[in-house]
Amino acid sequence: MEVQSAQQTVDAPVEKHRHKHTWTVDELGPRYKWIALSNTTLGMLMATINSSIVLIALPDIFRGIHINPLESSNTSYLLWMMMGFLVVTAVLVVGFGRLGDMFGRVRMYNLGFAVFAVSSVLLAVTWMDGATAAIWLIGWRVVQGIGGAFLMANSSAILTDAFPAKQRGLALGINGVAAIAGSFLGLVIGGLLGPVQWHLVFLVSVPFGVFGTIWAFLKLRDTSERRPAKMDWWGNLTFAVGLIAVLVGITYGIQPYGSHTMGWTSPMVLSCLIGGVLVLIIFAVIETRVANPLFNLSLFKIRAFSFGNAANLAASLGRGGLQFMLIIWLQGIWLPQHGYSFEQTPLWAGIYMLPMTVGFLVAAPVSGVITDRIGGRLLATVGMVATAVSFLLLLILPVDFNYWAFAAILLLNGLGMGLFSSPNRADVMNSLPPTSRGAGAGMTATFQNSAMVLSIGFFFSLMIAGLSDSLPGTLNQGLTAHGVPADAAAGIAALPPVGVLFAAFLGYNPIQQLLGPVLNQLPADQASFLTGRSFFPNLISAPFSDGLTAAFWFAIIVCLVGAVASWFVGKPKPLAATVPQESVGSELAAEGGELVNILPDDTPTAVLQRPRRAVGRPGEISGTLRTNSGAPIAGAVITVTGADGMQVGRARAGQTGAYALDGVRPGTYTLIVTAPGFQPAAASVTVNGLGAVHDFVLLGGGVVAGTVHRSGGTPVEGTAVLATDGTGQVVGQATTAHDGKFLLTGLPAGEVTITANVDGHRPHAVTVLAGAAEPADVELLVEAVGVLHGTVTGPDGLGLANATVTISDSQGRTVATTLTDDEGHYELHDLEPGEYTVVTSLYEPAVRQVDLNTGETTTVDVDLASGARADAAS
């Protein structure tokens, strides 16, 4: 009972904590990972659809709230409706990833779904007009972005926890398809719903948001181990201020300033850019000095994480502004040239861009499956090169193109991005320590979202720079040639080119907006021609081509940079591991700051055992993990790294202590074993065509010393002393010396139960805290257990049944009472050493004195007939 009680006091809090906060994937069943995938895919799809759905619907939204976004006083509304969502998610996503690591990824993800659903409802019920409505919409779009940041920051980490390494590429690939395809689908959905009723653009997200919130709350469970840490408030503040300042500076840099076509020389823009960069430098300094940084800069020591994020940043820079350029190209030039009115162009622009979405939807999941088998470096590199080729083809495509050639190029672009996206995401997430997956995913999303905003600014700036050289002269010449007064034509030609771009982007007739009252002074046929479908597209074709050239060359360069970075992620490695659960509770000792010695396979050491057999199954590394007493160690994590230091796979030991990793290619690998409470161990193994087997014996750092003695102080020599952990496993054993002393070493750090069991004595158990810094001292007192038995007989020598036998100690106190059986026998147990008096009460009492020595069994027969002393036998 003492041992069980001690164990219960150790185990109960652990069970309560685990069931209250975290689950294992095994407990949730094999279907849980697919539930996690479907729910997070819905969340990512919603978040990314809403990042782009307003782009095509902006004309209908502004008409609905009765605002002309091209007026100089309203341009800020246009910019923040376009970019507010992206700016907010870029700033907050990394902090929300850290919150997921600290307080539970599923909890933060559920909160994001709820925020997203509520903000969608409030956007859909907008009832105001004018500037009030614009501010209301922008404000709730920002809140919607906050919900999106929660979803984006934690979805990848939830999937990485739920899926084993060998299926992670597929899962992240499908999730990545939703993330990027959503931005394309948003264009089509916005184009379809906007003309019907602009409120539907926001209302469409409400049922999915409500359903997703309830579904996530009911079905998703935290399978990650919470990491107690403090929030890096100074880091969050400086990062948010610095990044917002930079992004705001870029946003306003594309607007005209004074006589300049763009605002890059504006004091406000320069202050935002320079000040933002300085604050971000301060942020970087802070991150190197705080205990729990927002940006874990040590993650950049991981090669796959560093180069993978560099490639993702380059890809996002190339992809982010492409949508805007294609929308302007289609809406401002190509669609009007081919018979579409300016009012129809937003919808058809989204439809004609579908080949890009199709290419991505096809390539991303396929590349995810292939990544699980051969690694992601080659696929990601090929994807970036293919994307660069697609930009090169767009560069040489004439402005008035054949649509099928255009569609084929967009398909190639989508295929390239799909080939890149899934492998890149899998490589980055697989490289992260488990307890840093939330923060790492948030950092990746921050780079991606920030790059999207930067890309928009770069593309617009390059387009405006290209237009500003030739557009004024072309406009002036074209307008005067068709009857517009010279002073009016010169005034229009002097207007900033950004107005022309925004008009084309919104599907407005730019000439009608620019000429205004001048049209009333022209003949009807001239006015009709100038505002028709052909004049502006034909006029702007040449200047627009100049702007596209600069933008597409920028995209080609960054895609090639992304290809180089993808190649340096590392050699393709099979992510093979028979891992029943990839919980974040187990992390490499080296990543946690512990030093481990890498020992060759034949190094003599108490920690390593020689392999049980020379070979294993082909392509498999296997073995067992045990304590120095031979007990299996369940739940230990075995990490396999290649000769280049890159992680190849991970496995978790089962209840029997056995582990196995399959699908490993021939070569030399390092095995690193970590288990809570035990010292880490490492060994080198060579896998040939037959595989390899290696067993480990793990030693803990705990030491317990003590003495076993009897109640009288006599030491007990040669008795066994056992140490058991909270699960009842024997983790150590020793034998007492002549002075009763013992020493237990190599115990797992933490609470252990020490038990001594001596024949004829009660076992004694004590729970102590085993630590390496100072050995725990234990004194075990074993108490002897005496037994007294005999027979009560009558005058005829026959045994007397039901005679009462009472024994009392030397002080006359009754110790025990019993009745004889049918043959007169009695037996009394659990008596302490000492002198007792045996008394019967069936006949006239007969009294006998008896000495009971330690550990002895003594027989006392009482003859009621003669009253004589009976012989005693021990």
Main sheet specs = 4 strands, mixed
Q: How many E-type strands?
A: 24
Fraction of residues in H or I helices: 40-55%
Based on CA inertia axes, which overall geometry fits?
elongated
CATH architecture of the largest domain: Up-down Bundle
Overall number of domains: 4
CATH H-level superfamily title of the largest domain = MFS general substrate transporter like domains
- Rounded to the nearest angstrom, the distance between the terminal CA atoms is 31 Å
Question: Which class do the helix and strand fractions yield?
Answer: alpha+beta
CATH topology category name of the largest domain? Growth Hormone, Chain: A
Query: Which stretches are poorly predicted, pLDDT < 50 over at least 5 residues?
Result: 1-21, 572-615, 866-874
Please write the CATH class name of the largest domain.
Mainly Alpha
Mean pLDDT: 78
